[in-house]
Amino acid sequence: MANTTVSGALAIHGQNPQFLVETIIRNRIYDSTYWKEHCFALTAETLIDKAIETRYVGGVYSNQRPTQFICLVLKLLQIQPEKEILVEYLRADEFKYLRALAALYIRLTFRAVDVYELLEPLLKDYSKLRLRDVSGFHLTYMDEFVYNLLTEERESELEQEQKQKQEPQPGREQRQKPHTKQVTLRRWVPICFEKSVEVAVGLKIPFTQSQYLSR
Amino acid sequence: MADKGGAYGTKASDTDFRKKWDKEEYAERARKKDQEEKERMQENENRMKQGKKPLKGRRDDLPKPTELMKQREAPLELDKNLGKTMVVQNPGGRGPGQPGFYCEACNRTYKDSVGYLDHINSRAHLRVLGQTTRVARSTLAQVQARIAFLREKTKAASAAKAFDFDQRLAEVKAKEAALREQKKAAKKAEKEKARLELINDTAVDQDDDMSKLMGFGGFGTTKK
Ligand SMILES: [Zn+2]
User: Fold this and answer.
1) Where in the sequence is the domain holding B200, given as residue range(s)?
2) Touching check for B153 and chain A: CB below 8 Å?
3) Which of B63, B96, B138, B155 could disulfide-link A43, Cβ–Cβ 3.0 to 4.6 Å?
4) What's the total number of domains in chain A?
């Protein structure tokens, strides 16, 4: 059906991948016209066109209306494309919104090692991104967006599971240590993408951008 | 009533406009319907015996869907008739021509876009189209080809835009120059006209005096 996960999909973090999007937001997406009209029967191939057409990233705006971006994230969760396809999405550097979409999806579903390996190169991408949230439009950059993906707990109204905790990687414990703390502190961050500077500073995120790049 | 005549053998012709019913055909239809209903009941009885739920309506004999779920090719244009006044061609009937969104495949009309969208995404509608509810899996090659294609397309579009820009600048300049020339010419013509008029007026005035004196108009044209 139009809203079911593809059969044979692998469970992500022990559940239906679509459940990574909060129930309320998910139902709003299912009810939205964009979802019904434009996201119907999309494949990994036709989704590219839609992703290029999006004009901003974000979760919900104005009266909790879902953005096209978040609709496409849910679509990706639904059809669960192969890893190589997502890598291909990431490599298309001129289509920045496709790239951002793939980055968010990878952050949500991949193993920690793969997330870092795939997303770290994007910290050198300084292209501008438009961001829409409840308060309106904002300017952000790809490196900032990806940095937030790597460090923040909640992005774009998605319940991101603490997958680093589930799969501890040797040699990366140092990065995972403050994670539980992040969870508790960041749960109150109310609106998607709206990161609180105090929280970020108070946490002393152990890996800064310079550390990424020098590695 | 052996024959369809009047009481005294006269035939009423003033009621000929009435519809003549083909009674045979309708009787046949009724028989068929009864037969179908009977069969359905029998089948339901069999199902009941087997402990299954009875079937509600009659089943459509649609072939099994063979195709995968496909994206709609044309845009739906849901707001195509937004704000327009339309003539209802088929008031009170089923089928097309009713206000709302009409699905040709299923012969159903929906009052609003939400209902219509829900319908065309539904399993029943897909079944009529011969599609399953599964979507095709794209391969890596397909994705790569699509990205390459879109890359070329955007490149061509941006190149066209850049080219257009220079050309348009030149066009605008030329247009402005032409407009200025035109204005200038118009002004000049107006001046010339005013000057001519002035000359004519004085000439006519002189003529007038003369004509009054002589009792007739001047020679030649009176056009100014
Ligand atoms: Zn239909």
Assistant:
1) 166-215
2) no
3) B138
4) 1
